[in-house]
Amino acid sequence: MPVLVDSVPTMGKPSKTFDARRLLDLFDDDLDDETIGAALGVGRSTINKWRNGRSCDLSIYRADSLAIRTGRHPCLVWPETWWD
């Protein structure tokens, strides 16, 4: 029976995840969490969690969506692992 991962059916394979902190590296250090959150379409508290190493695992679908919001293909954000 298929398993739903982010509303997309899979055949129960383990989901690969991507570290959200890589997205933070794309922004200038002087930008605040609210500004970065607005650019990515997430809340300030989410950015704060990522900065502190909590809840950093993104599904492939979420990683793709967030990378596109920065104007980049996700393989440019996660070059070592995107195509694995």
Quick structural gist:
The chain has 5 helices and 4 strands, in the order βββαααβαα. It is an alpha+beta fold.
Walk me through the structure.
With 84 residues, this protein is α+β, with helices and mostly antiparallel strands. Helices cover 40% and strands 14% of the residues. It is built from 5 helices and 4 strands, in the order βββαααβαα. It has a two-stranded antiparallel sheet. A two-stranded antiparallel ribbon has the order 3-4. A hairpin with a 2-residue loop joins β1 and β2. The chain is globular. 18% of the residues are buried.
Q: Any descriptors?
A:
84 residues; alpha+beta; two-stranded antiparallel ribbon; two-stranded antiparallel sheet; 5 helices; 4 strands; 40% helix
Mean pLDDT rating: 88
Distance between the first and last residues' Cα: 25 Å
String of helices and strands: EEEHHHEHH
Q: Flag low-confidence runs.
A: none
Shape: globular
* Radius of gyration, CA atoms, in whole angstroms: 13 Å
Biggest sheet descriptor: 2 strands, antiparallel
| Counted beta strands | 4
Beta strand %: 5-15%
Structural class: alpha+beta
- What spatial order of strands do you see in the largest sheet? 1-2
**Which percent bin holds the helix content?**
40-55%
